[in-house]
Amino acid sequence: MMIPVQIQQTYRQIADLLEIGCKSLHPAYYEVCLEALEKLCCMRRSPLLRGSPVVWAGGILHAVGHTNLLFHPLSPGHRSPRAVLAAMHANLGTAETKSLEVRKVLHMDRGSMQWMRPALEEKNPRVWWISLKGGPVIDVRTKSLPAQQMAVKLRLIPIAPAVLEENQKKAAAGEAAGETAQP
Q: 5-118: which CATH topology?
C-alpha cells in the first residue's frame, strides 16, 4: 500500500514501535497491526496526524490483540495487555482509549476476518456466517461445495469449508503415514 508522503515519518515511527511491541507475540500480530496502520495512514483525514506515535502504536496493538482474543484468559497463549504494551512504553489506559477509536474507525470486531490472525479464522464460527442482500444469516458450512466456492469468489469467506476439511484430512493422513514410516 502506498503511504502518503506527509505521513511516512509517522508511519515509520509507529511501525518501529509495533515491531517492538509484537516481538514476543506470534509474527501474524505484527502483520495485522501493519495492515491496520496502513489503513489509518491512507484515510482521507488520517487520525494519525494528531497524537503521539507511542499512543497510536499502543492503540493499534491493543485493538488487534482485543480482536484476536490475545487478552482473554481462556485463550491459548493469552497475555496481559499491560505486559504487551510495556515493551513500547505505552500506557494501558491511553492505549485502551485509542484502541476503541481504532476499532471504530476500522470496523474492527471479533468477527472481522480482515483483522484476525489466520490461525483464528477457521476456528471462529462467525467467519462462516454470511448474509446476502440483507437476507437471513446462513452458515455457509451447511451449503453445497459450489455454494461455498461462490462465497469464496465473492470474498465472503476465506476458503470453502469443504476444501478446508479435505486439506485437513490429507494433512492428518500424511502425518500418520510419516509416523508409521519412521523406525
A: Cyclin A; domain 1 (1.10.472)
Tell me the pLDDT tens digit for each residue of 90-143: 999 999 999 999 999 999 987 677 788 877 766 666 777 787 777 888 888 888
Which of 118, 113, 150 lies closest to 128, judged by CA? 113
Please report, for residues 35, 46, 108, 148, 170, the alpha-carbon distance to residue 39 in angstroms, rounded to integers and kept in the order given: 6, 9, 12, 29, 37
Eight-class DSSP state of 1 = -
CA distance 91 to 83: 10
Q: Which residue in this structure is represented by grid cell 459450489? A: 146
Q: Are 71 and 80 in contact (CB under 8 A)?
A: yes
